Amino acid sequence: MYSIKEAFYSLQGEGAHAGRPALFCRFTGCNLWSGLEKTRASSDCQFCDTDFIGTDGQHGGKFKTAQALRTHIDALWPAEQGHKYVVFTGGEPALQLDDALIAEMKSHGYTIAIETNGTLALPKGIDWICVSPKTTKPLKVTQGNELKLVFPQDHLPPSLFIDLEFDHFYLQPMDQSHLNASQIPLINTQQATLNFCLSHPRWRLSLQTHKMLNID
Fold first, then answer.
1. One of 6, 92, 104, 115 is an active-site residue; which one?
2. Of 8, 44, 47, 50, catalytic
3. Catalytic residue among 30, 59, 130, 146
4. What is the pLDDT of residue 46?
5. Which residues, other chains included, contact 195 with Cβ-Cβ below 8 Å and sequence gap of 6+?
6. pLDDT at res. 186
7. 98 noted as active-site residue
8. Does residue 130 have an active-site annotation?
9. Is residue 71 annotated as a catalytic residue, yes or no?
10. 197 is catalytic
């Protein structure tokens, strides 16, 4: 059974594939936070800006088989258009993405990407691996295409990751718009990220352009 919070067709808004048309499939659940505000302050990840609870989002639902889920989300791709690209995200997609779903998507022409916190092992066959560290727990995924670190995280300085085997290294300013300033101190994350990239040119700046453009 696959539990999907939402699925939608849009443009990738951040990282190396920013601007690329993509089908997004957001799984419910995460291993670093329950998704409930009452547990945010005590969770491993305290700054998540995503609703991944339940299956009530657009095109969300529960699907018994990989074929059923593929059929459901494939209908969102433009008719008779190739270059199919799906991004499995969450929550934490590694909790549900499996060999059967990868094989099903591949058999229908999809390039497969994942956006993961990297603390769980991944199945084989994923074409683009983006790891976004959120915790001091050891990473199980230490190589891939893109390491995207939300910045700043006092407990996760960029120096911890610079020697890992990734093709691209990005810093992304932390979105604080949804946070309670009385519980989590707020700073100018955009300026802090800009300054760090300028002084450490191994890192590139990643902006959430989908939010700037007000698109899903």
1. 115
2. 50
3. 30
4. 83
5. none
6. 45
7. no
8. no
9. no
10. no
Closest among 197, 146, 139 to 167, alpha carbons compared: 146
- Predicted structure pTM score: 0.90
User: How confident is the model at residue 174, as a pLDDT?
Assistant: 84
Tally the residues of the chain. 216
In contact, 179 and 47? CB cutoff 8 Å:
yes
Give φ, ψ of 14 to 5 degrees: -150, 165
The β-bridge partners of 149 are: 171
User: CA-to-CA distance for 199 and 48, rounded, in angstroms?
Assistant: 27
111: Cβ contacts below 8 Å, ≥ 6 apart: 83, 84, 85, 86, 127, 128
Residue pLDDT, tens place only, 123-144? 999 999 999 999 998 999 999 9
Read off the amino acid at residue 163.
D
Question: What 3-state DSSP class applies to 7?
Answer: strand
With cut-offs at 50, 70 and 90, classify the pLDDT of residue 183.
very low
Q: Is residue 27 annotated as a catalytic residue, yes or no? A: no
Catalytic residue list contains 48: yes
Catalytic residue of the set 17, 25, 45, 135: 45
**CA 30/CA 90 separation, integer angstroms:** 7
> Beta-strand (E) ranges in the chain?
2-11, 21-27, 61-63, 85-89, 111-116, 128-131, 143-151, 165-173, 204-205
Q: Given 6, 14, 17, 24, which residue is catalytic?
A: 24
The residues facing 179 across adjacent strands are none
Q: Check 6, 25, 27, 48 and give the catalytic one.
A: 48
| 147-176: average pLDDT | 92
